[in-house]
Specification:
9-stranded mixed beta sheet; single chain; two-stranded antiparallel ribbon; alpha/beta; globular; about 35% helix; about 425 residues
């Protein structure tokens, strides 16, 4: 029996834009750690050095609880941040698209380090009075790549439950995760992570085809947790003083590179023209025959498969390493660099700020293909491929609209540290 192929559409999405009074300018960060009694001089100097070389603007934001001294951590503060970010983006995406909360069939929320009871998904269902038979899921501990994992789950469910609407929310809650110890690998998170979140509305309903912005083409997930080095390179643990933090290993760049290679091997045949696949296969064969060295292997030109790249804004070293390894142009990584500059590392939601940047610049055209790449603890590298199905005009709700004319800004690559 013939079954019609199911298309998965992205109807719309919104990104959280913190109010200006949540800003964390450099001067405030320095004053904050200098006055914080639990930081020793070496920890203070290290954090200042990291932030100076991060490429962040004066506009990145943190929740207000982290700007107070002394810092007080509590479950109520975590919930306040979660409700502020998540409720805002959910309300905005539903109202903008005139969607009744009761019309949502599937709800998926990912937040790596904050997983309360009742869950964040239950919190949203309660707030917006969603249906009692809604299929809800709450993903935790999946790191910065969890956003694409959520997309994968939504994709699978939408294909099984035809003619359905799915709401995906990606965020990370910072209030509980400020580290006050001396371990440098854990101090990095204070400097890199900032406040953000995104809500994505997806559909498998035929009637939504004309309203959609994008259509999902491919999803590829790579998990290297079987390797001990990969498993331990981003790890939540306690330090020598029994303080909880998330350590980022010095091996993270090498681990990310290996994960990306494995992901590209699976993704390449799905998106690259046959000529690129042939050249890569031929050079790999010659390398195995020792006719070519490893450095001589043909690197596929992924620009022949995509018009736009949204590389997880985990740090400038991550972006620059991918730019170099894939032989991308400066303009190909512009959205990622500018997102890191304006919003910082917003974890799993960063790829949506990058897509918003491309739209705000008026560069998205019907037929364009987009590659979203995310990395996360475990270690994971995940890819999502979208095709634009209409000419997209910038919207008022785009988080870049008030500053887009001042971008791009010049960010010297010599400032890189992580």
């Amino acid at each position: 029996m013939y079954r019609k192929k199911i298309s998965i559409y992205l109807l719309d999405y919104t990104c959280y834009k913190p109010p200006s009074f949540y800003r964390l300018p450099m001067s405030m960060f320095v004053e904050h750690i200098l006055l914080h009694e639990q930081f020793d001089p070496n920890s203070v100097a290290f954090q200042i050095k990291i932030l100076e070389k991060s490429g962040f603007s004066e506009e990145t934001c943190i929740p207000p609880t982290l700007s107070q001294l002394p810092i007080k951590k509590s479950l109520s503060f975590n919930k306040d941040e979660a409700t502020t970010v998540i409720f805002t983006v959910v309300k905005e995406v539903l109202e903008t698209n005139n969607v009744n909360p009761k019309a949502i069939d599937i709800l998926i929320i990912n937040s790596s380090l904050f997983s309360p009871t009742p869950s964040l998904s239950a919190m949203v269902i309660n707030k917006f009075r969603m249906r009692s038979n809604i299929m809800s899921f709450n993903l935790s501990g999946m790191g910065c790549s969890a956003g694409i994992i959520s997309l994968g789950l939504a994709n699978d469910l939408l294909r099984v439950h035809r003619n359905s609407l799915a709401l995906v929310v990606s965020s990370e809650i910072l209030s509980q995760n400020w580290y006050t110890g001396k371990d440098r690998s854990m101090l990095l998170t204070n400097c890199l992570f900032r406040m953000g979140g995104a809500a994505i509305l997806m559909s498998s309903r035929d009637q939504d085809k004309k309203k959609a912005k994008y259509m999902l083409q491919n999803l590829v997930r790579t998990n290297r947790a079987e390797d001990d080095l990969s498993y331990a390179c981003v790890f939540q643990e306690v330090d020598n003083e029994n303080k909880v933090g998330v350590s980022i290993s010095k091996n993270v760049m090498n681990v990310a590179g290996e994960a990306l290679k494995a992901n590209m091997v699976m993704l390449g045949p799905m998106v690259l023209p046959l000529t690129e696949q042939f050249q890569y296969g031929l050079s790999t064969m010659f390398q195995k025959m020792k006719i070519l060295s490893k450095k001589s292997i043909h690197i596929p030109d992924f620009r022949k498969g995509f018009e736009h790249f949204c590389i997880h804004a985990g740090g400038r070293a991550v972006i620059l390493a991918i730019e170099k390894s894939l032989k991308l142009r400066k303009e190909d990584v512009e959205a990622s660099k500018m997102t890191l500059h304006r919003f910082g590392n917003t974890s799993s939601s960063s790829i949506w700020y990058e897509l918003s940047y491309i739209e705000a610049k008026g560069r998205m055209r019907e037929g364009d293909r987009i590659w979203q790449i995310a990395f996360g603890s475990g270690f994971k590298c995940n890819s999502a491929v979208w095709k634009c199905v209409c000419n997209i005009k910038p919207e008022k709700t785009n988080p870049w609209m008030d500053t887009i004319d001042s971008y791009p800004v010049d960010l010297p690559d010599t400032l890189e540290i992580l």
